[in-house]
Design brief:
The structure is a single chain. With about 550 residues, the chain is an alpha/beta fold. It has four domains: about 240 residues, no CATH class; about 60 residues, no CATH class; about 80 residues, 2-Layer Sandwich (GMP Synthetase, Chain A, domain 3), CATH 3.30.300; about 80 residues, K homology (KH) domain (GMP Synthetase, Chain A, domain 3). About 55% of the residues lie in helices and about 15% in strands. It contains 16 helices and 13 strands. The radius of gyration is 51 Å and the shape is elongated.
């Protein structure tokens, strides 16, 4: 007879094989610890990158479930030979897994906490039920050869290793509450799998009970039940306490979700009454007996304090508790081809006024540009409008090589009045600019170019003549030069000289000017006696 009064369905030889299989899974050794470390690395990085697939792979590789079965079978059968290796494997495996998690958590490239990590730090009653079912399925897969291939699926179903990896990461991050939650989840899974596996082993006759005398069947069954309770009493007690804590956690999560849903529904219905506004995000936390609610809304215009107060009052009526609401407004503008959507009357009026202003300045700019298009090098830089006592003043900033004359400003003002169909006053502010290229100034008038050309010729002619006089007529200087405006250039040189200048010397000066100046040159020399004569022997 077994624990439940059922006859064994497996033969003694099969029981020995099951025992050896469990012992092999529970045996400590280098390969066991290497697999624990590697599976922890996979699980830790799966938690960091928030990948459920990677975490599932770690659970498939992790060997920690085998020693739990070994502990369950050892306690159920009273085998100390199996108990100590199984305990050693499990304890050292736990230490290695948490240690590797801490080392990975200390990496400077650690990512933020994700959903997969949080799930392993907030155990609920559902996790306990999953662990019990997994323990039953896993032990049954070990006992029954027909379903033994399902054992890897059982390893995936129950979270044995990921909570240890999450605990190590939380310790490295200094999140002690999360680390405690992860350890609680592992502990609950450990005892749930252990008790569930022990029940399966007892059902299939794996218990070994020493008896001094032969008992009647009903006494034998009662003896086995008492022996089971004695051996697993502490595990059952721990499991009951864990179940109580996890039930409270589940109730708390369910309550938080109801509160979150109530907050979201209440605020969404309230915010949606404002044109173009919508709720973006909500969160809350408890501050004693008060709820601190943070809401983010996207809206064309931010709500005022009275609107926030109304939303807060409505939340208090729905939640039946004190609420402190903080609203963060993200100003948003929805546009279509016609302009702003969901605009208030004030916003629509401002937009219409801005469109009228932009159209006015656009027409004014076009008119001014047409009026100055014949001014070489002139360009319109800016146009602004000011209104005083119902009268508009347009200020135009023009960049040009010369100032815009009052006569042209009058003509531009008349053109503006005709184009805009309203009385306006015009002020033109000219910014003088000179654009130059290697060949000379750009946008110059012909008269300016001629004057510039004469100045250049006079400067060069004075330099050439001064050089010639210094070399050929000591003491003579050029007092004044004149040049004609047309070709050929008629240059008149007024020279102060200590003696008369001969015709040959005048021809020589004309020749040197022609060789240095481009174009035809006719030189006339007028001299006046005078000049500088150094003293004999002076130095």
């Amino acid at each position: 007879m077994n624990l439940l009064g059922m006859h064994s369905e497996i033969k003694p030889k099969r029981r020995r094989e099951i025992y050896e299989d469990v012992a092999r899974l529970s045996q400590p050794g280098g390969s066991f610890y290497v697999m624990v470390a590697l599976s922890t690395v996979i699980a830790a990085y799966g938690l960091l990158i928030d990948s459920a697939a990677v975490v599932v792979g770690a659970m498939l590789v992790a060997p920690l479930m085998g020693p739990i079965f070994g502990i369950a079978l050892a306690l159920a059968s009273g085998s100390r030979r199996l108990l100590w290796p199984s305990l050693q494997s499990e304890v050292l495996g736990i230490v290695i897994a948490v240690g590797v998690g801490v080392l990975i958590g200390l990496s400077p490239y650690r990512l933020p906490i994700g959903t997969e990590w949080l799930v392993r730090t907030e155990p609920t009653l559902y996790d306990l039920v999953i662990a019990l079912a997994s323990g039953l399925a896993g032990a049954y897969a070990l006992v029954d050869e027909r379903v033994s291939p399902a054992l890897p699926g059982v390893a995936i179903a129950v979270a044995v290793l990921p909570p240890l990896a999450a605990c190590g990461l939380a310790i490295a991050a200094g999140e002690w509450e999360m680390a405690a939650g992860a350890i609680m989840l592992f502990t609950a899974n450990f005892f749930a799998i252990q008790i569930a596996a022990a029940i399966v082993f007892s059902i299939f006759g794996m218990l070994r009970v020493e008896r001094r005398r032969r008992s009647r069947p009903e006494e034998e069954s009662g003896l086995e039940v008492m022996q089971f309770i004695k051996r697993f009493g502490i595990s059952i007690l721990v499991l009951v306490v864990m179940g109580w804590f996890m039930t409270n956690t589940l109730i708390g999560l369910a309550t938080d979700r109801r509160i979150s849903a109530a907050i979201e529904n209440t605020l969404e219905s309230t915010v949606s009454t404002a044109t173009g506004a919508r709720l973006s995000d909500t969160s809350f936390r408890r501050m004693g007996d008060e709820l601190l609610v943070n809401a983010t809304i996207m809206t064309p215009s931010a709500p005022d304090r009275d609107e926030v107060a109304r939303m807060e009052d409505r939340l208090e009526n729905v939640l039946k508790r004190s609420v402190h609401l903080i609203v963060r407004s993200l100003i948003s503008r929805d546009m279509d081809r016609e302009g702003a959507v969901y605009a208030s009357d004030a916003d629509a009026a401002l937009a219409a006024a801005e469109r009228l202003r932009a159209d006015f300045l656009k027409r004014a700019s076009r008119t001014i540009e047409e009026q100055i298009s014949d001014l070489s090098g002139a360009e319109l830089a800016d146009v602004s409008r000011a209104t005083t006592d119902g009268r508009s003043t347009i200020t135009a900033v023009v960049r040009a090589p010369e100032a815009v004359s009052p006569e042209r400003a009058t003509a531009i003002e008349a053109a503006l009045r005709a184009a805009l169909d309203e009385p306006i006053e015009l002020v033109i502010r000219t910014i003088l600019i000179r654009d130059a290229s290697p060949s000379g100034y750009l946008h110059e008038r012909p008269s300016d170019r001629a004057a510039t050309r004469r100045e250049a010729i006079l400067s060069l002619a004075r330099t050439v003549l001064d050089s010639w006089l210094s070399a050929n007529l000591e003491g003579a200087t050029v007092r004044e030069l004149g040049v004609s405006a047309t070709e050929p250039r008629e240059i008149t040189a007024f020279i102060l000289s200590p003696r008369a200048v001969s015709a040959e010397e005048a021809e020589a000066m004309e020749a040197v000017l022609r060789s240095n100046l481009a174009g035809e040159i006719n030189l006339t020399v007028q001299y006046e006696l005078g000049g500088r004569v150094p003293a004999a022997g002076g130095g």
